[in-house]
Amino acid sequence: MKLEFKYKGINISFGGKTVSSSSKKFKEYKVTKNYKIRVKTYNPRGRLLSNEVVTKKLTSTERVPI
Predict the structure, then answer these.
(1) Each residue of 6-53: pLDDT tens digit?
(2) Which top-level group of life is the source organism from (predicted)?
């Protein structure tokens, strides 16, 4: 499952694990997760310009081998 979203023109992604099964059968279900990410922006001299917390609610499909 790989999760991606866009924030102020920047693509943020994480995850990407692969699930495999020798029987090729999976049980699928939907999962809703809340993600909280702190975004700090600095100028070229290292001074902190902004410190924001971004909250995203993402729904994805999980696959579990049977």
Answers:
(1) 777 777 776 666 666 677 788 888 989 888 888 888 999 999 999 999
(2) Bacteria
Spatial CA neighbour of 54 closest among 40, 41, 34, 37: 37
Distance CA 34, CA 40 (A): 20
**Which of 40, 37, 42, 41 is closest to 5 using CA atoms?**
37
Token readout for 4 is: 């991606």
The 10 Å Cβ neighbour count of residue 65 is 12
Question: Residue 25 and residue 65: Cα distance in Å, rounded?
Answer: 6
| Rg of the chain on CA atoms, in Å | 17
Q: What is the pTM of this model?
A: 0.47
C-alpha span between 65 and 19 (Å, rounded): 7
